[in-house]
Amino acid sequence: MQLSTDGFQALVAAAASRARDAALVADAVGIAVTLDGKVPEDVGRKALSLPEQVLLEAAELCGAGLTTADGGEELLVLSETGRLRVLADGSATPGGPGHVLGSVKWSGRPRSVTRLHALAEEHQRRQYAEVARWLADRPRAEVTARLDAIAHALLHMAPVRMYVGDRTFGNLGDDANLPGRSLAPGADASVLTSLAAADVTAWSPEEATFVVCLHALISSGAPVRAEEFNGAQLDPEELAAFLGERIRAYGAPVPACDALGIGARLELLADACARARAELVRAGTVFYRRINGVSLHKREDMMPGPVGWSEVPAPLAEVLARHCGTPLTTGTDPEAALDAVARIPGALAERPAPAGFGSAYEAFLHEVFETVAESLGCDVAMGRGPRRTDGLGPATATRDCYCAVAPSRRFVRRFDGDSASLVRTLSAYSARMRYNTWHYLPHTMAWTEGRQPARDDWFFAPVMPDITDWSDRHHTGHVAFGVRHAIRVPLGIVLDGAYRPGLYDLRLLRTTDPQFELGDLRAAIAVGRVLECLHQAAAEAGVVVSDFDNAWYRAFHG
Fold first, then answer.
1. 274-285 pLDDT, tens per residue?
2. Quick check: pTM over 0.90?
3. CA dihedral sign, ordered 123, 126, 128, 130
4. Which residues have CB under 8 Å from 279's CB, separation 6+?
5. Rounded Cα–Cα distance for residues 337 and 341 (Å)
6. CA-to-CA distance for 404 and 371, rounded, in angstroms?
7. Which of 224, 273, 402, 491 has the fewest CB atoms inside 10 Å of its own CB, making it the most exposed?
8. What's the DSSP call for residue 198?
9. pLDDT band at residue 399 under the 50/70/90 scheme
């Protein structure tokens, strides 16, 4: 069965081809900024600079046409990164190649548009210059601390790509200019390397704006907040408005700061935002993120109301009841239900292993994920974690982790008896998730605090559930094995006297539509709390998981 997609560059090229055929600028823009419906339009438009916004909005309001013939004015180009550019002088795309869509053909361009465009360019220049002057007045030690904090965040989180005016800053792909997967810390091609070696007065206004804005962003909450500006302009005024909106959403007052310069204003707003969010975290608010897998744009939100035991899928409650010997329904008292669930790992230790499994507990885990896959309409449900929790250390290797992957019956039928392809697919999902556990371990286990860990290739442990759409375009494994829509619920347990976030997780995926909805995420979070209870009890009982490696998938599904 064919699960692979054509990848990101093919998606950009196809969207450009469709946009090029549009008669009106408005239609072409709608296709280009959404990459033909794969990116929310409001997200796609965030990549436009202020001068570009002015020109496009005027052209759309005037009903301007799109022409590939000579005689048009502004040139529309869809860059290789999926960013729509509006080139006022009709020149080639700055910063790299792209797909030319056509020129704007006005039926009499209003003079006001020219004036507004010039004003927008001047406003943007003044704004960046103000930020640059403010940063140049800061002590050099403070500037260095900002660069160090940005580098640390970028190295230990998912890729980012954002814009300041015409400039692109990112660590994704061959054109990366920030440290991360493509560039090592201190690499000559890294913007941060050249900035660290130069006086701030020698930085470009765009570079200073990038540093000030990104530092404010990662200071306003978790460092992964930076991903909320993926595919967007890192504009100082837009960032200030964003932080104000977040503070209000957290139920806190926005500090009076309009009289301050933009640099000081961002510092004050970032601090207020971080403190307001921390209060909600302490109060037990469930935060989650919506992720667009094409633009990598991520948006934090808050769950409306608590997630309870009643949202555990009824078929799973039946499985749990059968194994713990206690009647469980979605109406059972939550504490009594979890107390009963916590007894399952110990009880299973005394039962023989069913055929195909190394232990009764591993068979039970697989049944749990199978039941979740069927109940929530997934192609696959899976969960990862360490094979054993005793003896975890910085040298823990990928082979010391597992990922139990359970396909739904519908997904298996799609392979039409091709067991080799099914095994290859499930093994690929499992192998990647086993690697993720290893990747998060230094942060999960706090090996990064107070001393240098044995390895530096680690990511911040995830703590927020998320829903991802159209993730089958960037990551090599996601492209090859069709991971289109997904849910992730990070899970942790108390180990060695401390809570260990992201040591485990629950993942649901679909290789075809429909997308997951908020109700699916709530059910997954409820299942995750059951799994946390099971993982905690299994760790305390010293349970070891030996199944769910590649050999196991060949034996079980082959």
1. 999 999 999 999
2. yes
3. negative
4. 250, 252
5. 6
6. 13
7. 224
8. S
9. low
